[in-house]
Specification:
- The protein is α+β, with helices and mostly antiparallel strands.
- The chain is built from three helices and five strands, in the order ααββαβββ.
- The relative contact order is 0.10.
Length: about 190
């Protein structure tokens, strides 16, 4: 009966008592049915707003995935990663990003791509990948595909002010092809 815990809720209780005394249960039901109906409508609107927010979030994610897939389908190699970094940046609060591609069968070296705001150089990221022998790591499919690091625990630091890091394996069921590293000052990256 108390709608918002404030004065308005007390007024409704007082009105219910007065109406009940004068008109009985039937009069009270008729008088306060619109209040009950309004509360159901407000509750439905609230849940609808949550659903709209969820659908909007999913649409943003789909838009980013579509842009990333078209980047790999039709753009030049140099332009491709800048478009991927821009798309991810629209989805997440990210300060710096890097993509590592494992060496191919022809004996080529790691391919390293860093975003513009990354303070670590390609050479530093490449040295870190070689030291850690990242391309030789065995990945267990039963564990999460991402690794979270915080603050000084980050093995490679792409941006000094970004304390939250996520390293995500780029893989399919048959193939592990690389690693995506994201860094942010926001803890939402770890959420």
């Amino acid at each position: 009966k108390v709608l918002d815990g404030g004065r308005r809720g007390r007024e409704i209780v007082i009105l219910e008592v007065l109406v009940y005394a004068a008109y009985g249960p039937a009069g009270m039901l008729l008088a306060f049915f619109p209040v009950v109906l309004a509360s159901f409508v407000v509750r439905s609107l609230s849940s609808m707003e949550r659903r709209v927010a969820e659908v909007s979030r999913r649409n943003r994610e789909l838009d980013v995935m579509r842009e990333i897939s078209t980047s790999f389908g039709g753009s030049t190699r140099v332009d491709r990663y800048e478009r991927v970094f821009a798309a991810i940046g629209r989805l997440l609060p990210v300060e710096a990003m890097a993509v590592l591609e494992w060496p191919g069968a022809d004996g080529e070296d790691f391919a390293v791509h860093v975003s513009e705001r990354c303070t670590a150089t390609r050479r530093e990221v490449l040295a870190w990948a070689r030291r850690g022998r990242l391309d030789e790591r065995r990945f267990d499919r039963d564990i999460a595909p991402e690794e979270l690091s915080l603050g000084d625990a980050r093995e490679i630091r792409l941006a000094p002010a970004a304390h939250h890091q996520v390293r995500i394996r780029l893989s399919t069921f048959e193939l592990h092809s690389g690693l995506l590293i994201l860094e942010s000052a926001s803890s939402t990256l770890h959420a």
